[in-house]
Amino acid sequence: MSIAEASRLVSFGLVVLIWIVQLVVYPGFDPIAPERLVSWHARYTRAITWIVGPLMLSQVALLGWLLHDRPSPRLGLAAAAVAVAWLATAFLAVPAHDALQADGHDADVIRRLVATNWIRTVAWTLAFLLQIGA
């Protein structure tokens, strides 16, 4: 498997994951009983980190390698989209998850998490699409 193929595969994995999170997981936080959310959320974040962490790190490494090896506008835009996803993770998703973990069920935080997660959903989808044929 080439570096380009591996990069596309990892990016596709993130696309599948983020769409499941966006359409199923995050909206599913709200109906969880408030007294159960903190323990459920702790298990979720621990488990999802083992999936999303290696994918995110692999995506950066593979895309960085590609961009260094054969720079192109499409790969540059894909890298920019990945940077947007990382920034949205650090400055929007992580603080929302921290708030849910610290304070428990908060419908406003859950709504904000769902709404702002569209940034990551679009960014990772775009990063994948830009790598097709690049």
In short:
This protein is mainly α and 134 residues long.
Topology:
Layout: H1 3-25, H2 34-69, H3 73-103, H4 107-131
Helix pairs in contact: 1-2, 1-4, 2-3, 3-4
Describe the structure.
The protein is an all-alpha fold. The protein has one domain (3-131). Helices cover 86% and strands 0% of the residues. The protein contains 4 helices and no strands. The protein has helices at residues 3-25, 34-69, 73-103, 107-131. The radius of gyration is 16 Å and the shape is elongated. The model has no long low-confidence stretch (mean pLDDT 96). It comes from Paludisphaera mucosa. Keywords: Membrane, Transmembrane, Transmembrane helix. This is DUF1772 domain-containing protein. The chain crosses the membrane at residues 9-27, 47-68, 75-97.
Shape, per Cα inertia axes: elongated
The structural domain count equals: 1
Radius of gyration: 16 Å
Mean pLDDT over all positions: 96
Number of strands: 0
Order of helices and strands: HHHH
The helix/strand class is mainly alpha
Largest sheet: none
Can you tag this structure with a few keywords?
4 helices, 134 residues, single chain, mainly alpha
